[in-house]
Design goal:
The chain is mostly helical. It is built from 20 helices and two strands. The chain has one domain. The chain has a two-stranded parallel sheet. The N and C termini lie far apart (about 65 Å).
Length: about 400
């Protein structure tokens, strides 16, 4: 897995969700998939692997730095659970069958609005738990247990109503920093077991078919419905406009974003009372078909994904965050089941996190320097005959 860059994961996601769409969308699905994948592949050339073992250039994590990281993680969990996103209210293991309904209500309440402060911070800190697992190898034994405890708590908190989040967590934890085919097979088996357990908690076994087959088939079925019902279109540069809006936080300047999945769900499943019981997804090709000419949309998406992924991958390599890179990569594959814009938002958020991460790890050093500095008055002793003021 260490040889897989973020760009490689994105290519896997584009192909995994793009090529089967040929069954419902025909040859254009193949054309758009290739048009999006080629720019990402070009951005994957000449990428470096993350050093492991004795090749690592990072220092051992001291007790003070370990305590600060654990304290920051627990403080964020407490604050966000009480005053922020409050994800425990939609956790599928805590609320079972009502978790999805609660999640849909929250999504509809924020329709056409950008992320607030809590949502933006939550997206930025998506890799915090896996980064704690990475640095635990540099900590002493007691600190290692503390980092793992904080990481597992954040992972459980972040699952909410998503089975995909649970799958990603297990895959990353089992694979770890040393991945081989045996570990991959073990991770896949454990992840599937947890997926079915999460499906049981959500009540998905009451529906027709198995949850895993339904999870794979639903986006393609919805894409078929979207294409047959002609749910409108927009010019391809509107896709770029939605991307550039991401750099303007909604809590600083109010903005209107196009909620593609929500609006298209209204189109294919119109309710009598104009409400939705669930939000449909259409694979990443749904957006490509919506913004025309679609070939330009596919190429634009590939360039944006490749460029951002290269920046993020370089930062992950520099900070030697192996588990975090695997988590980010698998998350991108899962998110491409829905939209490329979701992946772009996620990558932008991780750039912000990775810019702050080295300073968070060195926070104890910064604090020690501040405490060690002598007061200014001590640097200039009193002269004879002068009174201290």
């Amino acid at each position: 897995m260490n040889r897989f860059s973020v760009q490689h994961f994105i290519i896997i996601g584009l192909l995994f969700w793009g090529l089967p769409a040929m069954v419902v969308a025909g040859p254009p699905a193949l054309l758009y998939t290739i048009a999006a994948a080629i720019p990402v592949w070009l951005f994957s050339l000449n990428t470096s692997n993350i050093p492991t073992g004795s090749a690592s250039s990072l220092r051992t994590l001291g007790p003070a730095a370990t305590s600060i990281l654990i304290g920051c993680a627990l403080a964020y969990f407490a604050f966000d659970a009480l005053f922020g996103q409050q994800l425990l209210q939609t956790n599928l293991f805590l609320h079972g069958t009502t978790a999805v309904d609660r999640s849909v209500d929250q999504s509809l309440a924020g329709e056409s609005q950008g992320r607030g402060v809590a949502g933006l911070l939550g997206t930025i800190l998506s890799l915090l738990a896996f980064s704690l697992i990475d640095v635990s190898l540099r900590a002493r034994r007691l600190g290692r247990w503390g980092l793992w405890t904080a990481a597992l708590l954040l992972i459980f908190y972040g699952i909410a109503a998503s089975r995909g989040a649970a799958l990603i967590a297990i895959m990353v934890i089992v694979l770890g920093r040393t991945s081989n085919w045996r570990r991959i097979a073990l991770a896949g088996g454990v992840a599937l077991a947890l997926f079915f357990l999460a499906s049981l908690a959500r009540g998905d076994f009451g529906n027709t078919g198995t949850p895993l087959a339904a999870a794979f088939e639903a986006p393609f079925f919805n894409l078929t419905m979207m294409l047959s019902k002609h749910c409108g279109n927009a010019p391809w540069y509107a896709y770029l406009g939605e991307f550039f809006k991401k750099f303007i936080p909604a809590f600083i300047y109010p903005k209107t974003v196009y909620s593609f999945n929500v609006e298209t769900s209204y189109c294919i499943y119109p309710g009598a009372d104009n409400t939705l019981t669930s939000i449909s997804i259409f694979t990443w090709l749904g957006e490509v078909f919506y913004y025309t000419p679609s070939i330009l949309t596919a190429i634009s998406a590939g360039i944006l994904l490749g460029a951002l992924a290269r920046v993020v991958n370089r930062m992950l390599v520099k900070n030697e965050l192996v588990c975090a890179r695997i988590a980010l990569g698998i998350a991108c594959v899962v998110m491409l089941r829905s939209r490329t814009q979701d992946v772009l938002s996620f990558l932008i958020a991780q750039v912000i996190f990775l810019l702050a991460w080295p300073h968070l790890c060195r926070l104890s050093v910064y604090l020690r320097h501040c405490v060690a500095q002598e007061p200014a008055a001590a640097a200039y002793p009193e002269q004879p005959g002068q009174e201290a003021r």
